[in-house]
Amino acid sequence: MTRRVRWAVVAVAFLALLAGCTVFTSSQDSPVTETVTPVPVPSVTDSAGTADRETAAVGREPGRFPGVSAESGIDLDVLLETHVAVLSSNSYTLEWARWTAGGDGAVSQQFERRLEVADDDIYLRRDKGVRSGNVTTTYVDGTVGYRRVASDRGVTVDRRSVRRDDAGERFARLVSFEVRTFFEEGGDDLTVVERNGRPYARVFTTRAPPLLGEIYDAYAVQNFTATMWVAPEGYVQAVHYEFDLVDLDTTIPVEWRYSYADIGETTVDRPAWVPENATNASRVNGTDATPAGVTTDRTATPTRTPDPARVPPTTDSNATAFR
Q: Which residues, other chains included, contact 66 with Cβ-Cβ below 8 Å and sequence gap of 6+?
C-alpha cells in the first residue's frame, strides 16, 4: 500500500481549506488548556449554569443550549441552524489551525488561520504556513479584494474582483463538516462546563468516523478524540480533534482546532497596505483604476488546491473568496 492519501476522495475535499476558504491563520502557537468546572447537563426545558447575563453576546437566554440536551442528546440540524443564524447576523472572529509532526507531503501540512468578519461584505483573513513561514493576508470589501503575500522572496500585493456572497454565513458553516461527521452519533460524554464565568455544553467522543480511515488509507487511524463546545446562545464556540496516523514504522500525530470568538464585537479596519483610493464609492462611480504599485487580475479564477490534510467535502463554505 503506498503511503498517500486517497486523492480521488481528497482532491477537492481537502484543501478547500488551504487554498480554500481564503481564510487565514491564527497567530496563536497552540491551543490553550482551559480549566473547566463540571455542572449538570441542562434539559430541554430547564436552564443551567450561572453565567453572567452581561457576558452573552447575543440576546438568547444564557444557560440554554439549542440542539443539546441531557434527555435527547444532540440534534445536529437544530444546532447547526442556530449556529449559522447567530453568527451570520453578527460580526465574529474565527481561528483554525492544523498541527502535525513527522511524515512528508500533504499529510505533513501545517497552517494557522485567522478570519475577522465584519459583515457579509467586509472581512480580513490571515493565512500562515507554519513550515514555510509564508503569510497571505486578504482584505475584502464588497466585490473587490486585495491580497498581500509575504515570503522569503519579498512582498507582493495584488487586486482581484470578488464574487459577492454572504461571507458571514459562508464562514459560519466552515465547521459544519466536523460537527456532522464527528458527532453524528452523539458523544461518549456530554457535560456542561464553566469557562470565564460562562457555561458551555461540552461534547466529547472517541469514536473515529469511518471516513478518516477511507481518506488516510495508507495508515491506521488511532487514538481519535474530538471535543465540541456549544455556547449558551447556540453557536459552536470551538471544535478540537486529534488522532494518530500509524503504519509499520511511522506515527504521525494530527491535531485540528476551530474557535469562534468576539461575537458581535469584531471590527475590521482597512489595512495600511491597501491603497487609499480602494473604496466602494470609486467603484460605483466607475473610476475603477488600478492603484499604483498594485497588480490586477480580474479574469483568472484560482483553482481549488487539493488538501490531503483535510477531510471536508466541497462546499461553498470551503470555497475560495476569489471566484
A: 60, 78, 79, 82, 234
Q: Which residues pair with 252 in a beta bridge?
A: 245
CB-CB neighbours of 175 under 10 Å: 24
| Residue 57 belongs to domain spanning | 7-318
pLDDT in tens, 29-79: 333 334 444 333 333 333 333 333 323 333 333 346 888 887 778 899 999
In a domain, 108, yes or no: yes
CB 219 within 8 A of CB 195: no
Backbone angles phi, psi at 39, to 5 degrees: -140, 170
How many independent structural domains does the chain possess?
Answer: 1
Assigned C-alpha cell, 117: 468578519
* Residues 142, 164: Cα–Cα separation, whole Å: 6
Q: Is 167 helix (H, G, I), strand (E, B) or coil?
A: helix
In a domain, 1, yes or no: no
89-136 pLDDT tens trace? 999 999 999 898 887 777 878 888 999 999 989 999 999 876 677 899
Asked whether 130 and 99 are in contact (CB, 8 A), the reply is yes
49 in a structural domain: yes
CB 74 within 8 A of CB 229: no
**Does 69 reside within a domain?**
yes
Q: Which among 173, 138, 168, 108 is positioned nearest to 318, based on CA atoms? A: 173
- Going by the DSSP 8-state scheme, the letter that residue 126 receives in this structure is E
Smallest CA-to-CA distance from 180 within 66, 81, 253 is with 81
**Cβ pair 158, 147 in contact under 8 A:** yes
Q: Report whether 317 contacts 173 (CB < 8 A).
A: yes
Using the structure block, give the residue that is written with the C-alpha cell 480521488. Answer: 8
Give the predicted TM-score (pTM) of the model: 0.69
Q: Do residues 41 and 69 touch, judged by C-beta distance below 8 A?
A: yes
Using CB atoms within 10 Å of the CB of residue 120, give its burial: 0 to 12 exposed, 13 to 18 middle, 19+ buried: middle
